Amino acid sequence: MTGVQPPTAKQVPHERTHHGDTVVDEFFWLQDKEDPDTVAYLEAENAFTTAATAHLESLRETAFSEIKSRTKETDLSVPTRKGGFWYYTRTEEGKQYGIHCRVPVEVGQAAPPDLGDGGALPGEHVLLDGNALAGDSEFFALGTFDISPDSRLLAYSTDFAGDERFTLRVKDLDTGELLPDTVEGAFYGSAWSADGSTLFYITIDEAWRPNKIWRHAMGTDSSADVVVHEETDERFWVGVDLTRSERFILIDIHSKVTSEVLVIPADAPTSPPQSIAPRRQGVEYSVEHHGHRFLILHNDGAEDFALAYTSADAPGAWTTLIEHEPGTRLLGVDAFSGHLVVSLRRDGLTGIRVVPLQGAASYDIAFPEPIYSAGPEANLEYDTTSFRLHYVSLVTPDSVFDCNLDSGELTLRKQKPVLGEFDPSRYEQHREWALAEDGTRVPISIVARAGTPRDGSAPAVLYGYGSYEASMDPWFSIPRLSLLDRGVVFAVAHIRGGGEMGRRWYDEGKLLAKRNTFTDFVACAEHLVKAGWTSSDKLVARGGSAGGLLMGAVANIAPEAFAGIVAQVPFVDALNTILDPSLPLTVTEWEEWGNPLADPEVYAYMKSYTPYENLSARPYPAILAVTSLNDTRVLYHEPAKWVARLRSLSPDSDVLLKTEMGAGHGGPSGRYDAWREEAFITAWVLDRVGLA
């Protein structure tokens, strides 16, 4: 650290009273984004972070150079077939964003075209160049990218602020011209009618909840668009999609624990939507069209989900196809003319099951490593016997395979190139189990340089999330190599609140069981130390968003267990946020965290763990908090208030706040900017563990 003093945030007492409990929030004023004092404080924190990390500039540049030198900058994805074209995205050296392209399918061509050197393919037609669209904007993101069934029109949407409010446009791919059809304020997702005459899209309400599905007739002004469905229950959000068969528009209506699906015939887009099954509290289901039937993946009397079907002509009773099997969580089903492909997880690992429809036995695709992640890639064709899947592990780069559904044979189409002297045999990966304080065994995935000593001398990073049934399955990372090659161990704690071990794993880490998420993570940290992987003075914790709540909670629960904590877009002021239904997404979150407004038990429970509420005057590990001013999911003020209060209570703590002043929840949008952000965090971590 330099001699520069950190900024001091002013304190303006603001009282909050609920259930007879009055709390003074002295940094409430930071919630006003328009207040010049707020912006000045964030900029002062940025300046302090810059000064406090100036000694790491050379290391940051080295880490960035390592990421860049290991990445094939001019590259392309494996083309995916849809109708008469192969679709793919490619990147060019020096350019931040992807270029979306297609080439015609040649007569008799079954396999995707040869990828060559990663540049443009012969006969390429550029559909959308993200670099040209972004121009000089500091931020750029695509929301929807949707080709009409006749391959003639492209609906796409753009965001230049990071607030996830998109402008929707339509491009004629035959002529290259932009059509006059434009919608402001659209959200992710869209769906075409069968003939491309109608486009369905989504808008959000003031709380950033996707609540309306609209129908737009091509060639008309958007002021004439019709609301097809408006969801008035604030717990629910909506989505829209076209089935792979291109027979139906699906409107998905979902809360955290309940769902309903409406359907519209794609060849009759003005028809009123019909419900597959009315919503029932606690029952979730999703729908896939398959010939004369709708496939229903559901949890009605099936904790880990079962697969059923109902008539596509007259949806009614459900007939079971795959029975519920406790401990085998069914995640999704992809329907093709002759096969079903079921994605699942068992014993903390993902799997893929192929179900032939013509008498052959079902089979599970076998994968070679003890820990890995596998799942479906884009599979746009309905009449096909080839299934595209994605495979990755902590030591195997992202790989794309095509599976022959009749034989089960896998053909590797591409493995993400890692340039330089990368050799997976130089690394080892392990699955170990920590023992939580209630006796539950918690899986941990570990990767390290081969031969890493187990005497506690190695530094380590422990990553965690643990919310929304999201699973942190093993993944490969080029930036992570900069840590591994310096002797840092990387581990993932598969804690409760996530979905790694099935639906019960999620249920045991939410609502009034949320503390399990935090104590599981601490148990994983303690296991790494006991097993000799690291020691507490060399262990850095890392998490983002709801995983940032985890970071703030463990900083209060077990500050002595960590040398440092990286909290990215952290949900650290959870109670104040969940108490305010006017804030983005609050009401939809009540089924995840509970409703502290209505229930004093939930209020007291959340208050007992919310990071901001539980800071105290004691030493904390070094903390790096990273946020974005335009984040609509975890608002910037949560980490800003957290850091301000932490500094006021523990002025000797080493805490930094870094705010992206022109980005959203995902941080910087360009790939080079994202690499620099990762290099910044890498250098900070190395400094914390004595390797700077």
TrEMBL record:
Superkingdom: Bacteria
Stretches that traverse the bilayer: none
Domain Peptidase S9A N-terminal positions: 6-415
Listed SUPFAM superfamilies: alpha/beta-Hydrolases (SSF53474), Peptidase/esterase 'gauge' domain (SSF50993)
The Peptidase S9 prolyl oligopeptidase catalytic domain, residue ranges: 475-688
Family: Belongs to the peptidase S9A family.
Name under which the protein is recorded: S9 family peptidase
Taxonomic lineage: Bacteria, Bacillati, Actinomycetota, Actinomycetes, Micromonosporales
